[in-house]
Amino acid sequence: MEAKTEKKPLIPQMTKFGKWIVLILLAFILIWPLSAGLYWTVYRAYTLLDATRFPDLDPNLETVLQSTKPESAAPQKGAALSASIRNRLEQEMDSTFGWSINDLIISPTRWLDNRANRQRGTIFATRMMTTFFSTNLAKYGKVDKENENLKEAREKYFAFSSDSWWFPSSENQYEKGIAEIKQYEADLLKGDGGAVFNLRTDDMFNMLDFIIGKQFLDEPLGLLVQSNDQVAYTELDNHIYYTQGIILVLRDVLRTFVELYPEVKEKGGKENIRIAFKDMDQICTFDPLIVLRGDHDSIMADHRGKMARYLISIRERIDDLAQSIKS
Fold this sequence. Notes:
Blueprint: H1 16-49, H2 59-67, H3 74-93, H4 113-137, H5 148-157, H6 170-190, H7 201-211, H8 218-224, H9 236-260, H10 263-284, H11 303-326
């Protein structure tokens, strides 16, 4: 009898080493979507505890605007505009994790850098708007004495460092600043001459001009338009959320301003206002899962560039609005 010859398989058997290579490649292919899915789940769970998108005007400010109308007396409108300046800072202080910039390094909230940079933008914008309000709108003329409460708030309390944990804490100082502004508002509504609010047409122009100028919106814009090789990858999200904090304050102030002074819309600024607020809402709801920086013709998103485009559009619309008031 002839011995049967063993047939060789058409497909060569994979060696043990080859199997390990395949397993490693499969793991490598699967690990990224699994990691992204896990990160997305954890991050979305976090957003249920602490808001990261702000599509709507804050309910507290909505209440203020329901009780204050364009036909209201000047002191009421002044108090409402003042409240719109301090509102965002109060919301940050009262948020789920409070003022987190100054949390100790052992605290998990210390590592929430997106909210920390949003808060840095918030206190910057609050300082700047309080300064303009106090030195321009809270007195009858340039040579008049500045309101003491507003002066204390802007020079002493809001100028305090944002990352001091104790002796005193940043929260303590900012709360005192908010209390000073509220006292100004109370004195204004009392109507006994202890506080002044005087908004003229030239003040409207000056306020808008101040907002788009070097001291205010040019500051975050400069951070957003830097070339990619000048910004470390870890700094990209810092600039984005810092800008968001500034715009959250600005949106409160401008929404209050145009609601109480509808003549601004009548001077040819209605469309400019609509587009400006639309772009502000885009910034206030900007919260990518991962901040990317596509460069030149990269297929990756350029999130910092997108934020810059929104901000440039806002500046241009506010400038057009200012010119329509001036003319």
